[in-house]
Amino acid sequence: MLIDINAYVGHWPFQQLQYNTCEKLLKRMNQFGVAISVISNLNGIFYKNTQSANEELYEELKSNKRFRDAFVPFAVINPIYAGWREDFDTCINKMGMKGLRLYPKYHDYDITDPACIELVKRARDKGIPVAFNLRMIDSRQRSWMDIDYVVGTPKPEWNLKNILPIIKAVPDAKFIILNLANATKLADEEMALVKKTNLLIDTSGRSINDMGVELKNFGKEKFAFGTHSPILDYVTGQLRIESLYDTEADAQTKELLRSGNAKRLIGI
Fold this sequence. Notes:
CATH topology: TIM Barrel
Number of helices: 11
Number of domains: 1
Strand content: 15-25%
Radius of gyration: 17 Å
Helix content: 25-40%
Domain Amidohydrolase-related: 50-267
GO molecular function: hydrolase activity
Distance between the termini: 13 Å
CATH superfamily: Metal-dependent hydrolases
Organism: Adhaeribacter aerolatus
InterPro entries: Amidohydro-rel (IPR006680), Metal_Hydrolase (IPR032466)
Protein name: Amidohydrolase-related domain-containing protein
Number of strands: 8
CATH class: Alpha Beta
Largest sheet: 8 strands, parallel
Strand order of the largest sheet: 1-2-3-4-5-6-7-8
């Protein structure tokens, strides 16, 4: 069984996308044997009011009963936008969304902003995970209208260290790190923090170029299948699991990566 913890519907302003509706994504999932996809609405990254995107996703999911079992919706919340607490309550308690995706770079706040910490604590109290994308697209191909996050500028792409402050602030929350890019090297103290945190890293990011080494460094409980679809291709994340040698991952470990770890963290 495959559970994709990193997929989207919606639009990206600077790139034409395919398979970016629930109907088209479900066909793609069936083609590649994916049973469930965790999805958010890309539009929420760019709408001033992210709740509009959550409502769009909610209505799309209601439009076809086949979507009910195939998709797990995560809400996009901007904690520095007025009314975010009501948006959180609506998404989780009324719409039944199972987690959050936050975009500090796109919504222009610091990851340790008091409002962000409060939001993560609220998610913790509800028992739902909070996901952070280290990057959405390759910054070398960015539009001049996109945010400034080119490596070497004052606000470069994030690496794993950039997520640690929010983990330190709310260490008992559930976290998902998506599209892991750039450096993964951590000091011993930082690695100890990651290992004891209830956290998953998806397999879509370019830094997952040696899955066997990453499993050895972080542990088999820290990774789960993810595609970053429809922005990235649909198979690389899966190949990183299926290409593991038996000496790197036994059958049980591969099942954890395919679906077991996702089921545990997300509660599906």
